[in-house]
Amino acid sequence: EGGCQTTFLVAPDLQTNRGVSRSCSGCRKYGKKPSPAPLCPWPYSRRPMERVHIDYCEYRGKMLLVMVDSFSKFFWCHVMNHDTTASKTLAVLFGWFCCRGFPTTLVSDNGPQFTSKEFAEKMSKWGIKHLLTPPYHPASNGLAERAVGTIKSHLKRMDCPVTPLELYVNLHSILYWHNASPQSSTDQTPFELMAKASVPRLFPQLQRPQKKTQEENRSVLPKNKVKLFQPGDQVLVYSNHTKLNSPGTVKEIKSNNSYIVLVDDCYKHVSGDNLRLLKDSVGGNFDTIETVPPDNSDNLNNSLSDSNISDDE
């Protein structure tokens, strides 16, 4: 009778077969995107305006510039209409900075207004350290992305029209109620942390130390395997455009999960989420596996300047 409950399949050469598949040039090139690295939180800010995050978003054809302070979670937002040039962006930021102070660090994506020469010059003149997140990796600027999501979500729920008065009034109402409400990550209102003002609270007895609250929130982050790469590592770089992998060499560590990688004689700013080590290969050929740096590799620091680093694919 058919009473078999468990069946075992013995494959003595399974590891060898895996090695052969990993060395296949086609398997490498058309492999899936690497699994994402574990969440890598930004360092705690110790005071208001120590680090701010900015981003653009669109609402019914109108462009909005959003900024959030990492310490207090204070929101700013300005209706830019269709003018998102570097000059207009700098003018709005300067007005915010004059009201609340100039930040130590400003984080943005790789939008053309943020990577322009004019923007870089003003950041340097104002004494602000400007950090660019890896291209096509919005999680690196998650604080700004969440602020954008919050503002757009409320505007949509209010079915806010885009007439100048209605959009202005509703947008600033959203900002006021957010900044006057205690945040789960700090257990205080952004107004209190930003201006150190004693804003009345509904339930003051529920207040907890800010750092304890942030530690509790951080403790629930997924415990994925940490992916670390060192300069000189041979890696496969996954392209978000072509969905293909290309061989490259890690040249510099930019941050906890951000690297400068030499791919096809071009330096690229890449998130660690898009990298995979080549150490498991056993023989086989890959069309462009040899990654040879340019002749001026002695001047690596100059080669890694912003003008020579292309956006990550």
From TrEMBL:
Pfam families: rve. It comes from the Eukaryota. GO terms for biological process: DNA integration. Residues 288-313 are annotated as: Disordered. Residues 295-313 have a biased composition (Low complexity). Residues 44-198 form the Integrase catalytic domain. One of its GO terms (molecular function) is nucleic acid binding. This is Integrase catalytic domain-containing protein. It comes from Meganyctiphanes norvegica.
